[in-house]
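Support reply, case 0932

Customer input (verbatim):
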Amino acid sequence: MTGVAQPRVQLIDADNSAFSYFGRTDQSDPKVVRFDWPGVYLRCAFTGNTLAVRLKSGDRDYFNVFVDDQPVKVIHPATDSIFIYNGLTGKGVHELLISKRTEADMGMASFYGIGIAPDGKITSSKVKNNRRIEFIGNSITCGYGAEGLSGKERFKPETENSYFSYASITARAFSADYALIAHSGLGIIRNYNDKSKISTRLAPMPPRLGRTFDTDSVKKWDFNRWKPDAVVINLGTNDYSTLPHPDKAVFKRHYEQLIEKIIEVYGEIPVFCVVGPMTNEPCYSIVKEVVEDYRLIHGDTKVYFAGIPDGLLNNGSDLGSDGHPSYRGQKKSAASLVPLMANVMKWSYHDKEIRFGEEY
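Our regenerated output:
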C-alpha cells in the first residue's frame, strides 16, 4: 500500500484484536484479511476525527463505509485503495462498519487495516449481537440491483448492495450477526437459463457451501469457526426460471441433501426454506414438498417452508435493476419472513426498517 501516510495517520493493521469480522474470511496472512462473498463486514471503534480505510479489490467491487450508523461513503477500492475521511466531528468514540456490497464475481477483497488520527485509539465495537443467521441464496440474497432505479434498468455492479438484501434486513430486525453464502444466477442443480436440466459448466450453490471463497473450490471452510442459530435457504428461482425445468425427483433429492449437509455441520438448528419473490409455481409446491417430505422421513420438525408471493412486489418502486427487488421490495420480503422466524426462534424483533403503515 502506498501513499497511506498523507495526511498523517496512525496505521492499524488488520490483525489488531479490536477488529471483528463477520462472514467467511481468510486470515492465513494475518496482515491481510481476504474475502469475496457478498455481505462480509467488519466492525471496530476508534477515537479522533480522521479515518483511512486500507482496502484493495477488483474494478467492479464496491463497499459501504458507515460511521456511527451513518453511511459516509461507498468506496470503489480498485482505484480508491486509500480512502481518507475527515468529516468526523469531535474526538469521542466512533463506531465503524465496513461491508462488501457486491458478490464474488465482482472481486476478491484484501483488507489491510485502517488509519486513524495520530493521537487516536482503536477499541472493539460496542455492538455485541448474541444471535447468528446464515443465508444461502442467489441474486435476491446478494441484493442484486437493489439500488437500481427501475425494473427496466440494466444491472451495474454499483447498484448491487448486499446491505439492502432481505437477508441483511432480516438479521438487523433481530439484532443478529449474519453471513451470506450467495451467488447470482445459481440454483440447486440448474443455473439461470441453462440449456440442460443439470448445470455442469458452473457449479450451482450446494457445492459452494463448504468454500472459504466463492471463487475458489480448493480452499475449504472450517465450519467450527462460526455456528449460526438458524439457516435460511432461498434457492430454486433459477432452477425454474426458464425451460427445461429440472426433473422434480432430482431437484428434491439435491435440495434434501443440502438440508442434510447444513444439519451435519451445524447440528439440529432451524432451517427455513424460502421461495420468492421472483418465482411462482411449480417452484413453490416442489420446495414445499421437500420440506414436508423431509419432516416426515426424518422426523425433523425444525425445517420450515416460507413462501414469499411474487404478487407482493409492485412493478414500480419495489423493483430495481433487471426486475429484481429494490431496497423497498427487499424490505417487503423481510417483513414477510421475520414474523415466521420470530415465532420459531422465540426471538423479539424491531420493525423500524420493515414497517410500511399505509404504504403499498
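We compared this against your earlier run and they match. Two observations from our side: The longest helix spans residues 248-266. Residues 1-5 have pLDDT under 50 and may be disordered. Please reopen the case if you see a mismatch on your end.
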